[in-house]
Fold these 3 entries.
Entry 1:
Amino acid sequence: DTGRNGVEMVCADRQIWRVFPILAAYIGDHAEQCLVACCAENWCPKCLVPAKERGINTRFPPCDQTQMTCTLHAQATGQYPPKFIAQGLQPIFSPFWADFPHADIFTMITSDILHQLHQGIFKDHFKKWCMALVGKQDFDARFCAMPEFSGLCHFKEGISKVKQWTGTDHKQVQHVFLAALVSAAPHLDHIFQSTIVLKLGYPM
């Protein structure tokens, strides 16, 4: 109601104004994003990519809030629309955002920096790709050979054997990752691509 009718609030100038608060962004990890998007955790909370096709180089249409609300309502009333299964939806029939004015929850879900960038793009894809390109033993040796420096973590045993990673660990590795890759990568294109990925995950 406040988004449509407004609510009186005391502003910074000590005057009482009628404001219309609206939902602008939703911050949460991947599990929370899927819960809010009413989909299973192995589906994308923002677009209609099938679960088994995630990661392929194909653009899929974004989720449509109006259509999803209709699909959830149809499932709740026993109509069992095919889209409910085809889009990996969960039986969350009264999402909190359904009646919010000027709100499209699928455009308001922000990136999960830790799980999607640091652990997803960097650790699960990019780091493995570089290790396969250079070789685990050689790559570890390059991290071991780096001199210690104040403010940077020294990976004296390399990085291939590290099992548990924190957000801080990812940032420390990304600080020196490019230095370990230079002269080891077969082509300059690999260095250029690495620079783009590292700037995406941790702007320097």
Entry 2:
Amino acid sequence: MDSKSPSTDPKHPNPNSPAKSSSQNKDFLTHLEVYLSKRDGVDKLLKISRYASKIIVASSLLPHEPLISRLRSFESSVGISRKAFRLGKFVQDVNALRASDFTHLNLVLSLIAYGGEGLYYFIEQLVWLGKAGLIDKKHLHALQKWSAWCEFVGYFGSVSLKVIELRQFGEEERCLLASIDISGLRGIKCGEEQERLRKLREKKLMKRLSVVQDLADTLMALADIRDGRGRLSAPLFVSSAGLLSALISTHKNWVSC
């Protein structure tokens, strides 16, 4: 799961920030260095590697059992490695909750989104310690179940908040289009409004991608809750959802850095 912090996380990129506006002008290797210096950047590359491996294993593309065993071992190791990148990440959700818009509806949804995700990241630290051998492994199943439930609840709030934001973007877009049309009829140049419209549409696209990513991650959390049972928990389907989520998140992280 990815943090939803509006101020620190690429899930809520700021289109007016200098880093984003100049990202396309950066040298590729310089941009890559900046990307890999962030733990989210490395984490998402690991996520792509993990779910690509899971897809290969689930689809039986490799006929040789030794290669499949190696991929399973690789996927498991990467999964444990990714948990180490979540140490202290729950603090982002605490700060995101402090910075939230405290209208009645947004307060409830923010508590669900950031509270659920914050608990998820906190419990994931304990899961990592369990897999590393510091905590008795007999507690792992219960911790993983609690982790999945917190993640699932957090995504419910996150998707709801983003749908509200998309509606606000739609209203703002209609107002800008009306203003541009009126200016055109009067023969007035509207370069500033057109630039605002372009940036707004970029934000809208990124927000839609973020919703798709959250829905894909929600499916994976649901599969964990159900212990892999049910049609929506088929290994190939869940792995494909994980890869889709990883690719979207990687794109957002790349654009934002």
Entry 3:
Amino acid sequence: MALLPQILHSPRPHLAATASPSPSPSPSHAFRRTPRLHARAPASGARHGPGRGHLAAAASGGPGPSSPEPYPDDGLVELPLFPLPLVLFPDATHALHIFELRYRIMMHTVLQTDLRFGIVFAGSGGGAADVGCVGEVVKHERLADDRFFLICKGQQRFRVARVVRTKPYLVGAVQWLEDRPPAEDPAPGEDAEALAADVEALMRDVIRIANRLNGKPEKEVGDLRRGLFPTPFSFYVGNTFEGAPREQQALLELEDTAARLRRERDTLRNTLNYLTAASAVKDAFPSSPSSG
């Protein structure tokens, strides 16, 4: 469900060169879940993308993959990284088609270990974001030519502390991110629960008017929140902003649930204002058959 393409006009990203969107693959392979990632060695030699920190879009020299090893000094976790022109949120799913050699190699490693890798947003500027989300493979199909169809589900967020190596694929040492509780009591109506209720109400209005503009029958919008607490609901809302990956990345990087919901509320208000104006124009100037 995309809510924002009317306002934020960046197109839905096309996964060129490394992966492409695919239909849901059939689960032709059974696989087992293995233990979570272990702490691993730190890294050095990080390269910097423009305006970002430790990641660059193009891979350069480095040693090959190795087995997980503990690194007690900083508790970082070593994670294979997949730069893509999309943003993965916790609990969201994405279907991918893996065909580039280095990422086919990565998938072989991932499927033989704990089924997890990190997705980091890489835009057209050539750099990759420092904050990403772990994707866990929940279904996969290996094709005869060693390509993969897979579905991954977002898990925890992370920040890349340093790059470990870049060949045959990118690996980073990461630290996990969690939203922090508020330092002081919020103002009335600005706590996470109240903000979540506001955001859900705005989403209903946006969906209702968007359906009207698209010629769909107006009907009651169901329960969008589905019992979610404010934090997972804020990720759910961010995932609906799929037409604006840079805005999604900004939401992913926030470590404050209320701040994320406030930003989503503001964006939805802008979207609602735009759609309301568009609806008024459509009502004032209805299309008519050509008099030809």
